[in-house]
Amino acid sequence: MSSSSFADRPGAIGDPPEHYGNPFGEQRSLSEGRSIGELADSAVITITGPDRLTWLDSLTTQSLKGLAPGDSAETLLLNPNGRVEHAMRLIDDGETLWLLIDGAQRESLVAWLNRMRFMLRVEIVDRSEDFITVGSFGDALEVPAARSHDVPLVWTDPWATVVRGGHQYSTAAAHPAADWSYRETLVATATDLSAFDAAGSLAFEALRIAAWRPRFSSEVDDRTIPHELDWMRSAVHLNKGCYRGQETVAKVHNLGHPPRRLVMLHLDGSEGALPEVGAEVRLGEKTVGSVTASARHFELGPIALAVIKRGVDAAQTLAVTSDVGEIAAAQEVIVPTDAGAEANVPRLPRLGAVTRG
């Protein structure tokens, strides 16, 4: 069964399928580990050679030198100003580093990596045509993972916890990702997956939004820094060596504040409408941000992720534009308004100020 057969399944709506006729049921089945879905917008790149881990470690935000065969990690490639250019999900098999990325990054990332090889012992290959990427939750289903050097090519999402060297800005008493057991499995393209129940892309999107999980192809624009999305918890190591953009990461985290912040919105569902990606988020007459993703969740109802200005009062009810008019939206704080400035820097008196005994 090839990857295209997901669109050939009974009830499939869209290609790749958004759902198979029961979006809420598919969400529940997916979250309970009883179904799988094809991630049709994913690509696969490999880096082989003895310098692969130290090389990528020197370029990106995560500490990768100690990545053991079978380990999973997430890392970001920043530009010199600290803005996110690429996001990579990583598995190492002892000889090859496997990069799982959103498909839109495919050509530009391969080209950039090849330009940065210099004399190092690394080789970059695009393997996207050899595999399909299957998303699922938990380990109850025995998805037939491809293997390399006897390592199953399964990426386990680190979003459920704060990784070593990371930092969480969210102050939520119970983070919604605490039980997040998401994984991505590389499966050879000729593999028959017809025995597995399928869930469409709408189910994945609803569960991702509810878990506050940022995604490169959704939440990232040309201004994004990791702090704004609380991406420090899974993709940034604050105590590793230098890398491109590291100065901005350290400065904002220790001394400043991110200019924007990710928020989850609980939407008024009375009109039955969902805002489109890019819809304006407003406070009164002012536009304060935009929607990055929206969905109808089987338990939470209509929800969205949005990136808004940091200084917007977290207690304020916002409004989101849509085809049927403005939709009222209550904020659920992901990144607080005071995120950053974590360094314990003593305040110095103003020059010329009088010190009173």
Question: How do the helices and strands line up, and which of them pair or pack?
Answer:
Elements: H1 23-31, E1 37-38, E2 42-48, H2 52-59, E3 72-78, E4 84-92, E5 96-102, H3 106-115, E6 123-126, E7 131-137, E8 147-148, E9 151-152, E10 154-156, E11 182-188, H4 201-210, H5 216-219, H6 232-235, H7 246-254, E12 260-267, E13 280-283, E14 286-297, E15 301-309, E16 318-320, E17 327-333
Antiparallel strand pairs: 1-7, 2-5, 2-6, 3-4, 4-5, 7-11, 8-9, 10-11, 12-15, 12-17, 13-14, 13-16, 14-15, 16-17
Helix pairs in contact: 1-4
Features:
single chain, 357 residues, alpha+beta, Gyrase A, domain 2, Elongation Factor Tu (Ef-tu), domain 3, 2 domains, six-stranded antiparallel β-barrel, five-stranded antiparallel β-sheet, 7 helices, 15% helix, disordered C terminus
How does this structure look, described?
By secondary structure, the protein is an alpha+beta fold. It folds into 2 domains: 3-229, 2-Layer Sandwich (Gyrase A, domain 2); 259-333, Beta Barrel (Elongation Factor Tu (Ef-tu), domain 3). The chain is built from 7 helices and 17 strands. The protein has helices at 23-31, 52-59, 106-115, 201-210, 216-219, 232-235, 246-254; strands at residues 37-38, 42-48, 72-78, 84-92, 96-102, 123-126, 131-137, 147-148, 151-152, 154-156, 182-188, 260-267, 280-283, 286-297, 301-309, 318-320, 327-333. A 6-stranded antiparallel β-barrel has the order 12-15-14-13-16-17. A 5-stranded antiparallel sheet has the order 3-4-5-2-6, covered by helices on one side. It has a 4-stranded antiparallel sheet with strand order 1-7-11-10, with no helix packed on it. A hairpin with a 5-residue loop joins strand 3 (72-78) and strand 4. Helix 1 (23-31) crosses helix 4 (201-210). It is globular, with a radius of gyration of 21 Å.
